[in-house]
Amino acid sequence: MSSKWNSYQSLPKVAIMGRPNVGKSTLFNILTDSRKAVVKNQPGVTRDIMVEVVEVWGKTFELIDTGGLTEATDTFSQLIREQVKDFLGEVDLLLVVVDGRAGLIPEDRDVLKIAKSLGKEFLIIVNKIDKAHEEDLLKADFFEFGEEVVGASFEQRRGLGDILEWLHKSVPQREGELFDGPAIAIVGKPNAGKSSLVNQLLGEKRMIVSDIAGTTIDAVDSPFIHNDKKYLLIDTAGLRRSSKREDHLEVISAFKSQESIRKAQIVLLVIDGTIGPTDQDSKILQAILESHKGVIVVANKSDLGYDEVENYRQWFKKKMDDELYFFADIPVVFTSAINGMGIWDLLEKIELVASKLELKISTSDLNNFFFETVRMAPAPVWGNNNVKFYYLTQTHQKPPSFIAFANHPEGVTPGYRRFLAKNLKEKWGLEGIPIRIFIMKSKNKKSEGDHHDHR
């Protein structure tokens, strides 16, 4: 039976909504105590739906920053509007943020009408009231939509007590159910085919894909089942260069993808198979490895690759060796998300990597392997002494991590650590998994002259 992955719980959902530039992202950052939402004095800068688990005085819930609801007629705004309205049907409570300096304007009226039409309990937060004596006057216009109105200045941290009190009173008490299965993030450069890949994996159009290059508007996380095993797909807008566009909206996608990597156990790095891995893919892979996640390279658009490039697979793998050289055993699957080629292979590879993340090795097996391996190479030296190893054990972390006890941990070089990790991977089929080996000082002084720790 698979173990529970603690990242996911079925928790109450609280959404922050409002027109652009009223302070939604600032409130999200305050309540989550983070800088995950990008705050910039520019209308509509937050385009992605962002989700973070928050606890207020013992009540735990998911806080959702919805992106700006807007009446503008451009493609993006219409997509966001439809998406947000659809998404809000699933939440428990709403925090509707308005701008006290601007007063009740038509866009706010529309947002409040949407909030009322959803039949959810909501709190109206009149932000940007910088002078306490103006609060009653600036709040007055909004009472026609409900009695739950508080004044605030997020910049001055005023009114937060009232917001927290309302949340504590209103958030339903619900026991979280742990999601029984690994979470999968999909990351990669724009236009590598991430959205089409999501649709193939889920078998339906779960993501909204606009015709604007490099744009994907995220939906909620989506569970799916393969071979009677549960998985959770985390949708992501993809890591993009922040310097490429003048309005710096690409920063948002980087934030979102980093968050998806953090929440996932397995990350699919989608690469355009007609281009091959690039320096940017290398940076994304480094971020994945630094977060210690299982990873699979998805060479997408491979149907075109086979047509355009002679010896396509060898060419792609050579480019991987050149660009992704620092993680030599990374698994790769060749797919075409448009026509479904390779999707079954990808699902099988996901299942294999998920099983490797769960691997438990007995301490006796580990130590038999360990001392055979240690004999294969000269021992590291610290000062005038050889480094001696006494004992190896697996931790409870995922991916599999190990602790080796030695007389002089400081003498174990990164190269020697790589040697141990390489042999561990080969012995237990852990290729593609960024395992870690921690070296700690042996507490057993008596075993200083012996290879084995007699416990």
Describe this structure in words.
By secondary structure, the chain is of the alpha/beta class. It folds into three domains: 13-170, Rossmann fold (3-Layer(aba) Sandwich); 183-357, 3-Layer(aba) Sandwich (Rossmann fold); 363-449, K homology (KH) domain (GMP Synthetase, Chain A, domain 3, 2-Layer Sandwich), CATH 3.30.300.20. It contains 13 helices and 19 strands. The chain has helices spanning 24-32, 75-88, 106-117, 135-139, 160-170, 194-202, 250-263, 279-290, 302-308, 312-323, 343-357, 363-374, 414-428, and strands at residues 13-17, 50-56, 59-65, 93-99, 121-127, 149-151, 183-188, 208-209, 216-217, 222-226, 229-234, 266-272, 294-300, 332-334, 381-382, 385-386, 389-394, 401-406, 436-441. The strands form five sheets. Strands 2-3-1-4-5-6 form a six-stranded mixed β-sheet, sandwiched between helices. The protein has a six-stranded mixed β-sheet with strand order 10-11-7-12-13-14, sandwiched between helices. Helix 12 packs across helix 13. It is globular and about 80 Å long. The two termini are 32 Å apart.
